[in-house]
């Protein structure tokens, strides 16, 4: 989990984070109060697998072990979905997304869909109320 806003930072800035807002799978945020709920937001990406990656994964699957090309594809897709989720939440004025979840599906055995969704909120430290 990213660290909450520290003193001296602007609202919506959280220390040590990869994304411009706080993303948390928790339903609440200890030490913070949700002062506004904007509602559900999501980020979605669909990625196709290239023919060589699919063929290589088939050979690797016969031998056993991690399918590194497919792992990288899914990891990149997850980060892209989180980036899009962050952008949508910020467009509402949110500085955090709580109850973050992922959904993954295969489409026509040639592509993977990754959806990240959660509740866009604005949080403040308990002492700043």
UniProtKB/TrEMBL annotation:
Family: Belongs to the UPF0145 family.
Protein's UniProt name: UPF0145 protein WCD41_18910
Organismal lineage: Bacteria, Bacillati, Actinomycetota, Actinomycetes, Pseudonocardiales
């Amino acid at each position: 989990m990213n660290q909450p806003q520290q003193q001296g930072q602007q609202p919506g800035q959280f220390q040590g984070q990869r994304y411009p807002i706080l993303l948390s799978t928790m339903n609440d945020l200890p030490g913070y109060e949700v002062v506004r709920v904007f509602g559900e937001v999501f980020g979605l990406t669909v990625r196709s697998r290239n023919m060589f990656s699919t063929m290589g994964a088939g050979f690797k699957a016969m031998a056993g072990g991690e399918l590194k090309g497919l792992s990288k594809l899914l990891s990149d897709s997850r980060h892209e979905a989180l980036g899009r989720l962050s952008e949508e939440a910020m467009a509402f004025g949110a500085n955090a997304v709580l109850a973050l979840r992922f959904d993954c599906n295969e489409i026509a055995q040639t592509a993977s869909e990754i959806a990240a969704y959660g509740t866009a909120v604005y949080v403040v430290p308990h002492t700043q109320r």
